[in-house]
Amino acid sequence: MAQILDGKKVAAMLREELNQQVAALKGKNIQPTLAVLLVGEDAASVAYARFLEKVSGNAGVNFQLHQLPANASELYVKLTIEDLNQDAGVHGILLMMPLPPHINKQRVMEAVSPLKDVDGLHPFNRGHLISGGVCLQPATPMSCLEIVKRSGISLAGKHMVIVGRGETVGKPLVFMALAENATVTVCHTGTKDLAYMTRQADILVSAVGKPGLITAAMVKPGAVVVDAGISEVAGQITGDVDFAGVKEVAAAITPVPGGVGSLTTVLMLKNLIKGIQLQEQARQWEEAEEL
Ligand code: NAP
């Protein structure tokens, strides 16, 4: 039977680190502040914003909710973002999705200062992720790696097979895993023999959103299986992996819920802290250039 990689335990470890980072910043009179921008009243976004407010408060992070009406123009949304970019007291900006259909997601996302982009979605951050530079990285692929590494499993030299090449999970994970010296294969709907590919994995990550996609027959005995998928089936949150079957074959497996998803919020808040460091560095460089 596989070892269960406990996301809640790893999240507690990360929270402890976050608390120390926040305390250190407060010691320097910096009050970490997260601004959440919500356009409209999407129920899931409103609920997530409330959850974030609670988690931020617990970590000693200031939380601001900027809620605009659903009919706010794209220009108005961009001007609001620009105000937050210019506000030295705001260190991170989280744009809640989905946006109303009249707003161009890409243009609005690109309006966020890359140094305040706690979601790590800005093309500037994506570019640095690919080229191996210092940047803010998206939380979910980070969670996929942290849950493995912090459970004492190394990535270097391992063959990681990623199922899914979505912009939020699969694709950024490719570059993060390469930076950890894993050998990476990516599968998608065009992959000819998915089961053959997944059976080559030392570490198999599924980031698709199709319940039951990964079965025991698709897993090499002794592999580590990370399930980033999230779907709702009959009111229950479920991953991509047939957990009951795969846990009999794998050496280690993440559950859903209680796996990858447990780490994402704390990692996003750790991005806020990293953003503060990058903002400080940028200020120092600007000052040096002015001399
Ligand atoms: P996405 O953009 O929809 O990407 C899904 C990927 O899966 C696509 O690359 C697609 O291939 C591939 N795919 C679909 N069916 C497939 C199949 N039968 N065989 C192989 N590949 C297949 O999704 P995403 O935004 O990256 O998210 C992926 C999953 O992660 C979703 O379930 C999402 O809910 C979950 N998620 C979890 C968290 C968390 O906190 N745990 C956070 C964000 C997202 P093509 O490119 O060929 O279409």
TrEMBL record:
One of its GO terms (biological process) is tetrahydrofolate interconversion. InterPro entries: Aminoacid_DH-like_N_sf, NAD(P)-bd_dom_sf, THF_DH/CycHdrlase, THF_DH/CycHdrlase_cat_dom, THF_DH/CycHdrlase_NAD-bd_dom. It catalyses: (6R)-5,10-methenyltetrahydrofolate + H2O = (6R)-10-formyltetrahydrofolate + H(+); (6R)-5,10-methylene-5,6,7,8-tetrahydrofolate + NADP(+) = (6R)-5,10-methenyltetrahydrofolate + NADPH. Pathway: One-carbon metabolism; tetrahydrofolate interconversion. Its EC number is 1.5.1.5, 3.5.4.9. Keywords: Amino-acid biosynthesis, Histidine biosynthesis, Hydrolase, Methionine biosynthesis, Multifunctional enzyme, NADP, One-carbon metabolism, Oxidoreductase, Purine biosynthesis. One of its GO terms (cellular component) is cytosol. The keyword Amino-acid biosynthesis applies. The keyword Oxidoreductase applies. NADP(+) binds at residues 164-166, 230. Residues 5-119 form the Tetrahydrofolate dehydrogenase/cyclohydrolase catalytic domain. One of its GO terms (molecular function) is methylenetetrahydrofolate dehydrogenase (NADP+) activity. Residues 138-277 form the Tetrahydrofolate dehydrogenase/cyclohydrolase NAD(P)-binding domain. Belongs to the tetrahydrofolate dehydrogenase/cyclohydrolase family. Homodimer. Catalyzes the oxidation of 5,10-methylenetetrahydrofolate to 5,10-methenyltetrahydrofolate and then the hydrolysis of 5,10-methenyltetrahydrofolate to 10-formyltetrahydrofolate. This is Bifunctional protein FolD. The lineage of its organism: Bacteria, Bacillati, Bacillota, Clostridia, Eubacteriales. The gene is folD.
